[in-house]
Amino acid sequence: MSLHLYNTLTRREEAFSPLDPACPTMYVCGPTVYNFVHIGNARGPVVFGVLASLLRRRYGGLRYARNITDVDDKINAAAREQGVPITTITDRFAAAYREDMAALGVAPPDIEPEATAHIPQIIAMIERLIASGHAYAAESHVLFAVSSFDGYGKLSRRDLDEMLAGARVDVAPYKRNAGDFVLWKPSTDDLPGWASPWGVGRPGWHIECSAMAEAHLGATIDIHAGGIDLQFPHHENEIAQSECAHDGAPFARWWLHNGMLNFGGAKMSKSLGNIEKIHDLVRAHPPEALRHALLSAHYRQPLEWSDGLIEQSVRTLDRLYGTLRDLVDVDAAAVIPAGIEAALDDDLNTPQAMAELARIAGDARKAVTDDDKRRLKSDLLGAGLALGLLQQSPAAWFARGASGDDDARIQAMVDERVAAKQARDFARADAIRQQLADAGILLEDTAAGVRWKRA
Ligand SMILES: [Zn+2]
Q: How far is the centre of ligand 1, averaged over its atoms, from the C-alpha of 220 (Å)?
């Protein structure tokens, strides 16, 4: 079997083959940097990062671009509120995003283009769209004329007439058609703006991705990925802009969309508050457990996010690192097993890969001969490598309690143990005490309640 990926454009799983067999191209829509990002925004980078490393080992190369949107009305609003230039906001939160991704074990893309560094390319693409009759200037705006592109709606499978019938009535007067979208808009003096043939202004969001994908990956890219929430209108509009700017050449050959995280299920722990920002989550939990949790469901399915899910991932990793700790004297290098490659070839089936990982660990625990121990440790490390897991030493994993950032997580476990005792669930309480003891945390019963300290 070879790599098969579900293509949203055709609604089918298809055998993947890149245009250049030595170097596939991939573009993933990145964050708008005006605040710390939500854990839901990490699912795409984590999953498509697993895909990126698979493509690199399969083809020997990859050109992977993930953009930074650093001009946007939400950024402008944040800058105005805090009385600072927009670059203060965008620099700060682009850096925070890179830190968050690194904490989750997401390797940086090859290219991280920023919209404000591509204004000339954006203007040039808009000029081409106007010249070919696909866009028009009106009242200092430039709009894309959706009726000029027969393929409009092909990704989201929406019918243009139906879309227009459902459009709101308060349509801007300068639009010829209610579905037309903004490529360029005017900026007043208090807003960031660049000189253009249509006056001082700034680009719309959709055109950024089309211009940056063209600048770094060419007219046709192999894979374009992002969250399912971006399918319409963002990705539909990217296709319209790029295909019209390139005489109909296909924009992306494979469209991959990840499902959303749901927060409606199990209640998040009270002691930690409803933590949803990566910046806070990585301080309350081992970041590797967050990565494990994000990969625990198939990427196209919705994922129910909860403290319970995170704790389950912590326990799973405790077991896996426990196995590696037992094999610490066995000399073995990571080799990715065929069963893991086969699971990932099946449209990135990470739950199946994790089942395979658990099976290998089970076999490793039962291994008797040195040869079996060496082979199974190689497989275990290799399986982890393919998923971006198990790459720290067991000692480092179990010593995580030594980091000051883990205080909130330890306190949450202590609270959970108190609650378990009150509920007379002594098995759970003992399990938590043992887990804390393994991490070098000692519990002390005092008149004021349970205190904890590091051994
Ligand atoms: Zn995009």
A: 15
| Beta bridge mates, 226 | 257
Angle, helix 350-366 to helix 307-326, in steps of 10 degrees: 40
Q: Separation of 334 CA from ligand 1 center, angstroms?
A: 35
Q: Please give the helix or strand (H or E) that residue 85 lies within, else none.
A: none
The neighbour count for residue 273, using CB atoms within 10 Å, is 11
**Residue-wise pLDDT tens digits, 347-390:** 999 999 999 999 999 999 999 999 999 999 999 999 999 999 99
Contact 325, 394 (CB under 8 A): yes
CB 275 within 8 A of CB 283: no
Whole-prediction pTM value?
0.86
Question: Backbone phi, then psi, for 340, in 5-degree steps?
Answer: -75, -45
Q: Report CA(235)–ligand 1 centroid distance (Å).
A: 6
Distance 425 CA to ligand 1 centre (A): 49
How many angstroms separate the alpha carbon of residue 273 from the centre of ligand 1? 32
Whose tokens are 């067991």? That residue is: 394
Q: Kindly report the CA angle at 25 between 24 and 29, in degrees rounded to 5?
A: 145
- CA 212 to centroid of ligand 1, rounded, Å: 9
Q: Write out pLDDT tens, residues 138-161.
A: 999 999 999 999 999 999 998 877
* 213 CA to centre of ligand 1 in angstroms: 9
210 Cα to the center of ligand 1, angstroms: 7
Give the β-pairing of 252-258 and 261-262: unpaired
Average pLDDT of the chain is 92
